[in-house]
Amino acid sequence: MHGVGFVVIGDQKNRVIKWKVVNDRICVLRIKGKFFNYSLINIYAPTNDKPDDDKDAFYERLDKTYGECPRHDVKIVIGDANAQVGREAFFHPVIGKESLHPRTNDNGLRLVNFAAARGMAICSTFFARMNIRKHTWRHPNGESCTQIDHVLVDGRHFSDVMDVRSYRGPNIDSDHFLVACKIRARLSNVLTPRTARIARLNVQRLASSDVAAEYSRKLDERINEDAPTGNLDEQWGALQSIVNTTATEVIGTTRGRKPKGWFDAECQRVTDEKNEARKRMLVKGTRRNCERYSELRRAEKRIHRRKEREYDETVLAEAEAQYNANDKRRFYATVNGVRRKTTPSPVMCNDTEGNLLTDKTAVAAR
């Protein structure tokens, strides 16, 4: 199975101009910048042992996708190229002198030819690092690592790239290591207005007859002392202020409680044990360490599934008890808490020119 994609976090989605799925090996994300827009092409190339026809078709489609990107965009190609790039002087300046491998294999030659034809530089081969920081993929035998994930940038903007390296520490549950590229970029200042947080009144205290009587008495006193005047809107604003001030003083406010969720101390413990086993396996890839890591991975998944199932059963039991007790407020709060576990997909659409709209107002107007 193949697949590529991007994760856009938080307000950064407001900078997304366009998103395009080319096929199961190529996708494109276009981001709005201050001076230049950025076209990010994510790839998953065929492995070196695949037929030449498959590899030729992939690079033909990649070249076509690159050509379809706007001319003045900063174009960046990232992903699993399944290519070992060497240090041959003949390929300079497309490649650097800091590649992990001394010689370029067939897939690497195809990647170099693509970069040379498009005036790009394979940035992941230019930065001096310890070899351990150049590894991007670990062989299943646990004895060898290679550099097959790469970052390519337009030659014109090559100087904007500050660093490319891999990180072995983060456990992304893959035989690939996390590859990070630090680039000097200025993104568009898309500001999202922040709404003021409204304090929630502790209305549960009104269930006490003493508190309710005190609140009613103080509210009557303040309305009689400072009776609202003016037109209807002014009277309503003054009355609203009196009610809120009195309620805050008498019953106070409350903070919304963050749901506990199913991830508890036991889940954290087994995850920490798995991560420690992975570190030992990377340092010394013996059969025992590899088997121990695989065993803890299975145990982690088993415990996580059990904890999530138990949590769901507990929440359903609480909701049923609240419903039977006719406690509608807590019942609907419980139901809404369960529903929020499903994150809705962002609302986006294209305008008449094919550009991606991410702003809610623009989407509604469209």
Automatic annotation (TrEMBL):
Q: Which InterPro entries match?
A: Endo/exonu/phosph_ase_sf, Swc5/CFDP1/2
* Superkingdom classification of source: Eukaryota
> What is the designated name of this protein?
Craniofacial development protein 2
**Family annotation (PANTHER family):** BUCENTAUR RELATED, CRANIOFACIAL DEVELOPMENT PROTEIN 2-LIKE
